[in-house]
Write a structure and sequence with these properties.
The complex is a heterodimer of chains A (328) and B (317). The N terminus of chain A is likely disordered. Chain A is mainly alpha-helical and 328 residues long. Chain B is mainly α. In chain B, helix 4 crosses helix 15 and helix 14 packs across helix 15. About 2% of the residues of chain B have low confidence. Classes of the chains: A mainly alpha (328), B mainly alpha (317).
Chain lengths: 328, 317
């Protein structure tokens, strides 16, 4: 886990014997520790931050198993076991929320993952350099639009009566569509505007991988008379496959971590049936409610985080077995 | 097998070679068409927004703007510039972005440099502790309760202090340092009597220009676009960043800003619609542009750094 991508080759082997001792990596030698005491001072602040702001909240999850009363603190509150979890599983919201969370993510994965790869291939084989550069720059740009502004733009384009799309539909004599206030439209608008915003940025990584494919393979395939289409299929795709798999694993681990902001901002009472996801529900139960229930909200969040983590482990293991590519 | 015979055949006859050349030309054609289609899909909404922001609001609402501005007007921008809460938000965002980014850079370098040193005992444990937080987090409510108990709610610090380090940025910085500063250099500096702190200043920082540019940009954009933390941790109107103000007007169609401006509108402008709708159209398009311009203006100049950042993180895989 310490090296999410590929391990760099150790360098100490190239050095003369006399120096190798001091450079052996991470050995528990007194010399290494005492000589590098300053570095322990350096990491003091970041490590303190890590413990306080990252690991303490992990510990704070114990209130999911307690009836948390702020006045009594985390330690002073009474244990109640799995009551909050059971309440959530039995709540009428459970199925809807879990389904929405899973569905939006899966939809986004199925279309949002391959499209940047296709875009990267298109750009990689674009014949005119100038035009290609322009297209690249323009397609990366939406990545930098903030979520709030993005949702503002979505409203300008999809709203009823005055939204660009509906104006167009009316002018062609078609029926208006309530894109934003209809639960059945919500997933489509959510996913495709997301793809619009992120496909260019997502393509960068694949473009880099494509550029690293050995050109000699292409040369010899050309001599053998292979068409571009064939070379793409038999040389480029296998060449970038490791990158694809790593990103796919990472993405699968995020399958329940739908971005809170965009869903939250696009929510309205009319589409709530399709737009209530775990994160927005946790926010409502735990923070936005008039009588916030911290423990119950924590239990829901913890359930989701654990599920997402297990999913990542599972996908990583499957990938390790099938393709020998894994995160660690 | 099939591929081998296939290849032999195509190499042997000139006719197939010509057929393949034709296929390749067809490929380029389809490729160019697809690229153009995608290009239009991405750029068209952007053009529409900008054109609408420079048009007369009546034209926009009537659906007559579809590519270029109609009856060009700067009314929307005038209204935006007179809207005070927006500038309070801008100021706050600038504050959080500048101080937050400096703090992020310091903290990231302080941990990335030791992690890049092979002779730093405990580096793999430390890396594990950081990387683990990418895959499992404490969650919203425990984090909120922690921040509340630290007394950070509704302070400027809450937008900066708890968000010190992005693990991904640590990873790319460490990777960059490992690739660009050979261990022999540290070893030589050590022999010459340099301390590790001095090595950071005299060896690491001077060669880190590109990576510092990259992570500065990543952090700065994160702060500039920050919405979630402000939603959760800030109530005070004087402290909220730009994105919160934008949400009120763009997403919630809040009336506050619009009430402010109601007085200035003449009767003729109201012939086709209500005051409210007119003002919303007037202000919202201009606001989208004004809020995004700082990032997009800088964008062409810094694009290559961003791209490089993504590549440093990826190319080793």
């Amino acid at each position: 886990m310490s090296e999410p991508l590929v391990q760099p080759a150790p360098r100490s082997a190239e050095l003369p014997d006399s120096r190798r001792r001091t450079l052996t990596k991470g050995r528990w030698t007194r010399r290494n520790i005492s000589r590098n005491w300053e570095m322990y001072l350096m990491v003091l602040l970041p490590v303190a931050w890590l413990i306080v702001f990252m690991y303490l909240p992990m510990y704070g999850n114990v209130i999911a198993f307690k009836r948390f009363v702020p006045a009594r603190g985390i330690l002073g509150s009474d244990w109640i076991g799995f009551d909050h979890f059971i309440r959530f599983f039995q709540s009428f919201k459970f199925r809807e929320i879990m389904w929405n969370t899973f569905y939006l993510n899966a939809y986004d994965l199925v279309f949002g993952f391959p499209i940047p790869i296709v875009l990267a291939l298109i750009l990689h084989y674009a014949p005119w350099q100038r035009y290609r550069k322009t297209v690249q720059m323009v397609t990366y740009a939406p990545h930098f639009i903030s979520t709030v502004v993005m949702v503002g733009i979505i409203m300008k384009l999809f709203s009823q009566r005055i939204g660009l799309l509906n104006v167009g539909l009316l002018q062609f004599g078609l029926q208006e569509v309530n894109f934003l206030g209809d639960a059945s439209w919500f997933p489509h608008v959510y996913v495709w505007t997301g793809i619009w915003q992120s496909m260019g940025w997502g393509a960068i990584i694949f473009l880099a991988a494509l550029a690293a494919v050995d050109p000699e393979l292409h040369e010899s395939a050309k001599v053998d008379g292979a068409t571009i289409w064939r070379r793409m299929w038999h040389i480029d795709i296998p060449g970038i496959l490791p990158v694809i798999i790593i990103l796919l694993i990472l993405r699968s681990g995020q399958i329940l971590n739908i971005g809170f902001e965009k869903v939250f901002l696009m929510q309205n009472p009319l589409n709530i049936g399709a737009s209530e996801v775990v994160d927005t529900y946790v926010y409502k139960v735990g923070l936005a409610s008039r009588s916030p229930n911290f423990s119950y909200a924590t239990a829901i969040g913890l359930f989701k985080n654990l599920l997402a983590f297990l999913l990542l482990l599972a996908v990583n293991r499957i990938s390790k077995r099938l393709s020998e590519t894994s995160l660690w | 097998m099939v591929r081998a015979t296939d290849r032999a055949r195509s190499a042997s006859t000139g006719a197939t070679r010509i057929r393949h050349a034709r296929e390749d030309r067809l490929f380029y054609l389809i490729n160019g068409v697809l690229m153009t289609v995608l290009f239009i899909i991405v750029i068209y909404p952007l053009i529409y927004i900008v054109s609408s922001s420079f048009s007369d609001a009546n034209e926009v609402l009537a659906g007559r703007v579809w590519l270029l501005p109609r009856k060009p007007s700067l009314e929307g921008y005038r209204a935006v510039f007179e809207f005070k809460q927006l500038w309070v938000g801008y100021g706050n965002t600038a504050f959080y972005t500048v101080f937050g980014t400096v703090y992020n850079l310091l903290m990231t370098m302080l941990v990335a440099y030791p992690l890049s040193r092979r002779d730093f005992v405990g580096r793999s444990l430390l890396m594990f502790l950081f990387a683990f937080t990418m895959f499992f987090q404490g969650g919203l409510i425990p984090t909120y309760l922690l921040i509340r108990s630290l007394g950070l709610l509704d302070t400027r610090a809450v937008m900066i202090v708890p968000w010190a380090i992005g693990v991904w940025n640590v990873i790319i910085t460490r990777t960059y340092l490992e690739a660009n500063v050979p261990n022999e250099l540290y070893e030589a500096a050590w022999v010459d009597g340099a301390s590790n702190t001095r090595m950071l200043w005299a060896i690491v920082v001077p060669v880190s220009g590109p990576i510092i540019a990259v992570i500065t940009l990543f952090y700065a954009v994160m702060h500039w676009n920050q919405f979630f933390n402000a939603l959760i941790y800030l109530r005070d109107e004087k402290l909220v960043p730009l994105q919160i103000v934008l949400r009120e007007i763009l997403v919630m169609n809040s009336s506050a800003a619009i009430d402010d401006l109601m007085a200035d509108i003449t009767e003729e402008q109201l012939l086709e619609m209500t005051k409210r709708e007119y003002l919303q159209a007037l202000i919202q398009f201009a606001l989208i542009v004004v809020a995004t311009v700082p990032v997009l203006v800088a964008y062409p100049f810094v694009q290559k750094y961003f791209v490089r950042g993504v590549m440093i993180g990826a190319i080793k895989g």
